[in-house]
Amino acid sequence: MKLSKKNLYIYSFLFIWAVFTLFPLVYMLYSSLLHPDDIKAGSISLFSNIDRLTTINYAELFSDSMITRWFINSMIICLTVTFAQLIINGMAGYALAKKKFALNDMMFWSFVAVMMVPSQIVCIPVFIMVCDFKLIDTFWAVILPSLVSPFGVFMMRQYMQGVPDEVLDSARIDGCSELGTFFKIVVPMSLPAFSTLGIFVFIANWNAFLWPLLVLFSEQNYTLAVGLATLQGQHTIDYGLLMAGAFVSAAPVIMIFAFFSKYIIKGATEGAVKG
Amino acid sequence: MHKIHFNPALIILTALALYFLLFINPARAEGPSDFMRAVSAPAGQPVSGAKIKISVWDFPRITLPQKANDRFLWLRGICDEFERLNPEVRVDITKLTWNQGGEKIKIAVFAGVPPDISSSDIPLKYIENGLIEPVDEYITEEDKTDYFQSALDSFKINGKTYGFAWAQKTDYIYLNKALFQKAGVALPENGMWSLAEFRDKMKKIADALNIKPFAFSVEREQTSELPFLFMYGGGYLDFKDSSGGVKLLHDFIYADKISPIETGGLKTRDNWLDFKEKQIVAASPFGIWAMPALKKDQKIEFDIAQYPYADEITGTAGDSSVSSSGNSNGVSLKSSPALSLSSVIGYYVFRQKDPIKRDYCIKLARFITDSNNQKVIKYYGQFPTRKSAASIYDDDPLMKKAFALFEYARPAIVHADLARIDEYIKSACQRILLDGSMKSGEIEVRVLEIGFYISTLTAGLNKAQHPGAASGENEKGAAAQKVNKFDYIFKTGLFNMISFLIFMVAAAYLIYYKKMPGDFIKNRWAYFFMAPAIAVFIVFFILPVIRGVLISFQNYSFGGGWLDNFCGLNNYAYALNDKVFLKSALNTFLYAAIVVPSNIAIALLLSVLIYRLSERAQTWFKGAFYLPGVVSIVTLSIVWRYIFDFKSGVLNALLAQFGAGPVGWLTTEEMSLYSIIIFTILKGPGGALLIYLTALCNIPKDYFEAASVDGAGPLKTFVKITFPLLMPQTMFLAISLTIDAMQVFAPVMLLTEGGPANSSEVVMHRVYKEAFNNLNMGAASAMSVLLFMVILAASVLQYKYFKYDY
Predict the structure, then answer these.
(1) Which domains does chain B have, with CATH numbers?
(2) Helix count (H) and strand count (E) of chain A?
(3) Is B64 near chain A, with CB under 8 Å?
(4) CATH 3.30.420.40 given to domain A65-269
(5) What's this model's pTM, rounded to 2 decimal places?
(6) Top-confidence residue, B329 or A163
(7) Which end of chain B is more exposed for a tag (fewer CB within 10 A), N or C?
(8) Tell me, what's the ipTM?
(9) How far apart are CA B443 and CA B669, in angstroms?
(10) A64 contacts in B (CB within 8 Å)?
(11) Which residues of A fall within a CB distance of 8 Å from B628?
């Protein structure tokens, strides 16, 4: 490829900016591999200790904290929420896109309106409710309020509008039940939307912080994000350990991003402006 | 839009639903009815076969030498032993963490789901509310002689004992022997020194070694600087008399120059690092927890000393302090040689309904703290509360010395609202200590102001806090312990929810009745598909919004009904008079005002640059810029905290290489908020970038060709063509990014916790603290409603300027 002078400038500018944005992640990985003594000594000249990297922080992390447990907790919660959201949002999106019932407009607009409402505003009343129902310090307290996302409903509706009516009609004529139509025709035809939404929901819940922090009490119930935030000791802070924890929590998300970046980048622009 | 038909049935149904919703509010009924009591299982008779479950919530206190990674093994061991002795009991341990754990207990207690046993210093607030079982009957005469009197007394209120004292702790000044030696300065004799001696020695070391030898910090919930602060009198509750102590600390930094100027923003852990790892600090106050940690590493030769005692009280410092009042910690040497503050940790039992369970709970609490089991405190590095366990440190000269010095420790003040007072005083002191230009007169005035604020705060708290708390909450506390099944449905507002659901369905049906009769039957599948989403939506979005607004008008305490304790606009008045909240609102606006335009500008610039590149390069850069947006904000915050760290951060290391001095990114009032802003901007506008790119690709190429034919340069093309065409996206992003920015929370919580001196406090973090630290749900709701209104205004703008093309 021919590199004109102008393009060279552009490339180098973009490259420098990319270094800026990616530096923290690289630095996280690097310092998680430093020996605790090097970190504590504080004499950190960049990348000077590259020859004495060690995995000692990870060993300490996995033996001294409950990170395995937190990892499993996060997995349980995120997979449950993702699965439930796909079904619930998919069903609602289907009804809104393809069924002409009287409340269609009203319901659609209320979902769009709620997309504007910051969910953090409702955290105090929902917290009280969760306490009332004695769900506090259980996974249910995290799972139930995130079972539906207005954005998900919106996105599924947008996509499912593209499913041709003729296909649905012929399925019906062939004697397919309503549920059958949904699961055998609509879902397979909307798989790209489902996968994009699935990835988004998973990442969002994997990274959720405020709500799990509020409702999960005991260390063995923490999610990874919450556990990570409490990883420091009572009086001291061990950055090597923290960086190792940060990397463990970021790794699945980075992996998902590496494999599915096409869907993610597409999904990020979905629901935004079209014209 | 459909026309609304006023159907008579609709009006009746609405009225009915409103009636259910508003007036039949069984949550207000007092306790379970007699009938309910009769059907619930008779108290005190555990069903045969079922074990009595006791829940113990504790902190990771002790690490046993044989298994270093399990910080609850010691407690599990004791509880297993107790289970063996009492086979009908099962003990569940909930493992709390140090940060967050205290709040969790508080929340659980006020939410009516307290543990059975927990541990801390005396839980005054719960005792006041009748939530703690007195245990006097279980303390034998033998125990009484065995306990150190002061330890036993520390859990006594109004003649009743509310828990079993377990371990005592205090703070010491830790000395780095090597540095003392190097500077040729002698260690204090027997660990005792006068203030003049202390200052003299520190100055000598400072001159000899060119370091700041004395490191301290003023941090929320820490006690290590208090003996200095209250040295010349005053205390938490009469802080107005503490100006001498504040001036002393100020002088350490700016007059004597024995402490670093960034002290006001430092935390204990910073000093710990300097003392233990870098060894550039000769003396620093830490809790007794530091002893085992220092001994374990053996990197440092250290000694301990008691806090210095005040010499002749000089000048203006302490005219009023000699007669320091009874409840304060400040003491003059003449009356009693109390120098450091001690506190006692004990195990206590929350109110139990079932007498048999109560018996077991108290027995377990006693068992954990009995003489034999107290020996484990040896690995905790604190002092036992029983004389028979006092010998555990006999083979350890340093601990023996510490124990000797412990004689000069006096119990720290206890007060139900200490946390709030402490937070206020600490952040005010941080500000004073960070301001080197403050004259001694100004400090006095400032301290008087703080003292005045504290006294109004405590007076206000005594009056306003839960009117009738003392009498009313006793029963509520007891009632909240056990709610039987039927009662439960009514008590929890489930009833309100069901009636509200019925109301919504009925109203919706009736509004559309004329338009489409039988729609529910005809389109039943559509409603079937919608049902789960709608149900979750109503329960977790609509109802909470309503409830949140209601709570903002209530003096809410947990267990309160939807319509209890209305107090008008009090919460709003409280919020708008709260200086910290106003500061946080200002900070939030500032944050949004900087972050939003810079994010948009950067996204615009990058997207304009990227979209001409090849497909491959586009994909690569898209990924690089979007990746930080996918990674958790918690992860990134933690990494950035490390990067920003004053002592060991890479940013300051980098600056040092260019010869620039270290910047207190997160530790100075000037920088803390801007550091968070820098973090947010550098995290990158990934989503915005992608939206711009998509829009750019949709702009017909002819436009640009036409422009270049007309001789427009790239800048002119951008200004005249590209930017106007991207206006809708810009508008959309401006508003949605503003909404996001207004709710900034996690970076503040993880980077600075709003400090130092509230300089980086933002609204959501303030709401969080007000709600879950101070348990002031009403005011917190009022604050979030205020924020909500601002955000709503932004959303309305969004509707107005921009229409979804759905």
Answers:
(1) 8-29+482-568 (no CATH), 52-160+345-386 (3.40.190.10), 169-343+396-439 (3.40.190.10), 573-801 (1.10.3720.10)
(2) 15, 0
(3) no
(4) no
(5) 0.78
(6) A163
(7) N
(8) 0.89
(9) 18
(10) 68-69
(11) 21-22, 24-25
